[in-house]
Amino acid sequence: MAGRADGHGRGRREGEGIGWEDRKWGDGDRIRKISYECEVQYIASANNLIPIEIALKIANKIYSNERFSAYIVVPMWPEGNPTGTLTQRILYWQKMTMQMMYEIIYKALKEVGLDGTYEPQDYLNFFCLGNREAEDTTCTSSGPFSASNPQDQARKNRRFMVYVHSKGMIVDDEYVIIGSANINQRSMEGTRDTEIAMAAYQPQHTWANMLSAPRGQNNMGRSDDDSPSPPRGHMRRTRSPSPCGSYGGHGKRPTTNLMVTNLGPDCR
Prior knowledge:
lipid degradation, phospholipase D, phospholipase D activity
């Protein structure tokens, strides 16, 4: 679904979307309206459907009154000169993709009357990881510090981007999917690079078998509630701030620092 030859994937996907709408509209479910609009507006011209599918999944869950959140980690900028024309062009289209996803989610919230209660950032957040170097006391500056000099600012803050190059997803703190493919034309075209992926989970460390929250909760700050074992599909809120900056705009902070794609119903 992530790539298509010209005309082929578009026609097939549009046909599926319209048929899906026709089957479901009879149920009186308003979710179908926004899904149909998104199919027509975005999917008709998209070469990569993964961002749209994530946003539509969140919209579907909003209409179904179920909680579903996605936390996506991306590099601050792709490999290359951050101020270069090519890099800036990639960042521009990345921003437009994020904006498109948030618009889909906002429309869903507005349709069900939750736009005054929740924000799109309560359902979708982008993060750029960073690190900070220890101060080098042996290094001396060759001149006075200048706030307008990027090199001086970098030496002062000692922060640098973590270039995320992993291809993985964690679902419900139970399942992990790791592979070699990037979400780009080279990997997804199907006729170029050979890719491999695997999915795994530990049967004894699932929510159902352990009857408790994931162990990662114990290392992320004090829980807002004292219940020892929240039911499956629920996630405790933690009071510790996120260790990485949000790329989600002006929304609320995410409820947990874990990378999660499905929190289950009534987890607010």
